[in-house]
């Protein structure tokens, strides 16, 4: 996978920008699926798979949120890699002895090589790993989150929301496609642009889409329908990283998120919703981008700001109506072992 981003291990020794060129994300992921009917040879089976993530990564953050909202913590365990990595692999340096306690490995690469010896593409998070064999099953993050909604239904918690309701899938897919191209990936197109021309094209494309999203969200609380869906999860993980990272580090600086009133209120609404803000680790996010992308930030200095307390200010979006979880209920608090360090999130100030 030549296209790099913070979910993709850089196999070139720290080079993220191609001088003179435009950033292109290689999307050739391991397309294996875990299915309810077992037709993929990898059947849904609670306790069998372990979700490998880094809280720094927006693509992995999607899976953490969806897993929480659907209540799949007991069915799918989670391995959390540290926020930084070297050119060899993401590491489980947060765990005692630097080794994941379930998979027994120090580096996520070991799971990839267990299935594909000599694997030459990027070592990515999120990834689903088969615990009995220690082999990676899939790293196709877009399909993975949809499959948690559609294939793991027998193991959803009572009151789990419908994040990918069948009646709205066409519209959700359409919104996801443009948000991915122009926003989720658009910030990387700005940050990893190798020429002024490539940067300017990406910059205008990003902010044109943010303006489109502002217009869409001015009169409705959520992106599709009147409840939270997969589309909101995908946009949120980029917005929550916008001011700490993308505005400065990736030069996405027409405005800060806090200077875009509609999107800022929308992001705060989601952040204050159980299952969203309580998955966000701002310290890991900043450390990853500023320490790993050394061709953009050669010193590796991590900025202290911005102030995070404003994430907890009233957003007023409830006036637009909508029901966050539809006919469902909020998730329970995360298991103690999976809670974000209280020092890394403003939610520490909330009872």
UniProtKB/TrEMBL annotation:
Residues engaged in binding glutathione: 90
Keywords: Transferase
Keyword check for Transmembrane: no
Entry annotation: catalytic residues: 57, 188
An example Gene Ontology CC term for this record: cytoplasm
Residue numbers marked as site, Lowers pKa of active site Cys: 246, 289
Compositional bias (Basic and acidic residues): 338-351
Region (Disordered) residue spans: 313-351
Pfam families: GST_C_2 (PF13410), GST_N_2 (PF13409)
Residues in GST C-terminal domain copies: 165-292
A GO MF label: glutathione transferase activity
Annotated PROSITE patterns: GST_CTER
Name of the protein: Putative glutathione S-transferase
Source species of the chain: Micromonospora chaiyaphumensis
């Amino acid at each position: 996978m030549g296209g790099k981003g913070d979910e993709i291990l850089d196999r070139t020794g720290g080079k993220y920008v191609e001088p003179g060129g435009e950033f292109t994300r290689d999307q050739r992921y391991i397309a294996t699926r875990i299915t309810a009917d077992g037709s993929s040879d990898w059947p849904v089976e609670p306790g069998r798979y372990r979700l490998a993530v880094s809280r720094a990564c927006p693509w992995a953050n999607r899976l953490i949120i969806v897993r929480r909202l659907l209540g799949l913590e007991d069915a799918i365990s989670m391995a959390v890699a540290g926020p930084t990595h070297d050119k060899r692999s993401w590491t489980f340096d947060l765990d005692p002895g630097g080794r994941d306690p379930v998979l027994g490995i120090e580096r996520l690469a070991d799971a990839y090589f267990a299935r594909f010896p000599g694997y030459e593409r990027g070592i990515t998070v999120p990834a689903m790993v088969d615990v009995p064999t220690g082999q990676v099953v899939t790293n196709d993050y877009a399909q993975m989150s949809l499959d948690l909604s559609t294939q793991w239904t027998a193991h959803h918690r009572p009151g789990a929301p419908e994040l990918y309701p069948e009646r709205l899938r066409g519209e959700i897919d359409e919104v996801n496609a443009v948000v991915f191209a122009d926003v989720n990936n658009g910030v990387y197109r700005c940050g990893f642009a190798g020429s002024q021309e490539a940067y300017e094209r990406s910059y205008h494309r990003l902010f044109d889409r943010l303006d489109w999203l502002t217009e869409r969200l001015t009169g409705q609380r959520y992106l599709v329908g009147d409840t939270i869906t997969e589309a909101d999860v995908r946009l949120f993980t980029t917005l929550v990283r916008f001011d700490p990272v993308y505005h400065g580090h990736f030069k996405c600086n027409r405005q800060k998120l806090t200077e875009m009133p509609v999107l800022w209120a929308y992001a705060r609404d989601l952040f204050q919703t159980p299952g969203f803000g309580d998955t966000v680790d701002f310290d890991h996010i900043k450390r990853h981008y500023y320490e790993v992308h050394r061709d953009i930030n050669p010193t590796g200095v991590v900025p202290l700001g911005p102030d995070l307390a404003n994430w907890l200010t009233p957003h007023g979006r409830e006036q637009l109506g909508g029901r966050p979880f539809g006919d469902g209920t909020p998730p329970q608090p995360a298991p103690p072992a999976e809670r974000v360090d209280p020092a890394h999130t403003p939610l520490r100030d909330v009872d």
